[in-house]
Design brief:
Elements lengths: L2 H11 L10 H6 L5 H14 L8 E7 L5 E7 L2 E3 L3 E7 L3 H8 L2 E8 L4 E11 L2 H9 L3 H9 L9 H14 L11 E15 L7 E7 L2 H6 L4 H4 L4 E6 L2
Bound molecules: flavin mononucleotide.
Length: 240
């Protein structure tokens, strides 16, 4: 089956109920598939499905210095081989502090109406300041103000304090743009593995693991990540 056909099938599932037909990931398998491309099609299908309210929501799991994993939802803003999976946040938040100590993290998507899950593991780094400032500029003023004043993950004495801080910031920036704080910006997760899960009848679900061929190299020599990203993936089927 040509790649156009499976792309079409993936898109069509956005309109149907659960798709228990022959696994589309399996079809992709036969085509030396690119997991970024497959992820893009699954996101497109989720975006096309009216029951999916946040198609780009993904759970980011990080590890604290004490070894506690922590998960929280963030929104995917960009995904490509070159840029990795990009999201924006406060660098001083709990997740920012975790990532400063341990750059290994995972991202998990789950689209309930499509009965699909994608799990991604990789290494996280900050995007450039220019990238963060450019994305900040595209945000609505209300979002900029709330992010400007938010000491994300710190204790907030009251709701009143929050609202007063936003009102103060609004007044102080009436004549100009809200500046992008130094502690706010993007992170990029460069994947070492993707797992695509498709729910099927009788719990005989399909799971396909894509592992980057240079996984060990990338872990050992983080500077090589950029080069390794352009190369291939090892694909394995897993028991459900
Ligand atoms: C649908 C949804 C989307 C979210 N998107 C983001 C996001 O893109 N960036 C972000 O910092 N927090 C986002 N949040 C809030 C986070 O889940 C979390 O509460 C916040 O980042 C603080 O996490 P931390 O204390 O673990 O650092 C989102 C929450 C939800 C439910």
């Amino acid at each position: 089956m040509g790649s156009e056909n499976w792309v079409k099938q993936v898109d069509q599932t956005g309109e149907s109920e659960l798709d228990f037909s022959e696994s589309l990931v399996g079809v992709a398998m036969t085509q030396n598939s690119d997991p970024f491309e497959l992820l893009a099609h699954w996101i497109a299908a989720a975006e096309a499905h009216e029951a999916v309210k946040e198609p780009r929501a993904m759970v980011l799991a990080t590890l604290s210095p004490a070894g506690f994993p922590a998960g929280r939802v963030v929104l995917l803003k960009e995904a490509s081989v070159e840029r990795g999976l990009v999201f924006y946040t406060n660098y001083l938040s709990a997740k920012g502090r975790d990532l400063a100590e341990c750059d290994r993290a995972s991202l998990t998507f789950f689209w309930d109406p499509l009965y699909r899950q994608v799990r991604i593991q990789g290494l996280v780094s900050k995007t450039s300041r220019e990238d963060s400032v450019a994305y900040w500029a595209s945000r609505p003023r209300g979002a900029q103000l709330s992010q400007y004043i938010s000491a994300q993950s710190m204790v907030l004495p009251s709701r009143k304090t929050l609202e007063a801080q936003v009102a103060d910031a609004d007044l102080s920036f009436t004549s100009g743009l809200v500046p992008c704080p130094d502690h706010w910006g993007g992170y990029s997760l460069k994947p070492l593995s993707f797992e695509f899960w498709v729910g099927r009848e009788n719990r005989l679900h399909d799971r396909w693991l894509f592992e980057r061929l240079e996984m060990n190299l990338a872990i050992d020599q983080r500077n090589e990540t950029e080069t390794a990203l352009t190369s291939g993936w090892k694909i394995k089927r897993l028991y459900p």
